[in-house]
Amino acid sequence: MSSSSDQSDASSSRSGDVPEASAEVSGESILQNVLHDVLSFTEGDLEKSPGGQQIRQELIAVARKHGGVGFQLDPVVYSLVEVITSRIQPLSREQRETMTQSVARTLYDDVSSRMRIERLWERLRRQASDGQ
User: Fold this and answer.
1) Predicted confidence band of residue 78 (pLDDT cuts 50, 70, 90)
2) Are 8 and 19 in contact (CB under 8 A)?
3) Within 13 A of 51's CA, how many CA atoms are on the CB side?
4) Number of folded domains in the chain?
């Protein structure tokens, strides 16, 4: 499914490093890496990665901001994905917004991914209400 190159690219962004777009990295592979990263966070991999605590705190901040909102594409999934896409450099604001919308829509439209990100949302809401 993914090559070792894709896995190393994805692990660099999970480690808190800021992935850099280059001529060698296509928009499609960046999109795949972001999808992979978001889904890996739904499995608890976030706690294992360096920089994961900062990302976790940003995700909890999203839950605090939108905690009264039930799970939905906008603003919930968009905001969660934006935490991840905000780390991708160098993308213009327009490119980042396009990527965020594309990843969020893909996650929301895929039944399995949607269930996983919805479980993540519920965990984040609990953590936000517990004051974590």
Assistant:
1) very high
2) no
3) 13
4) 1
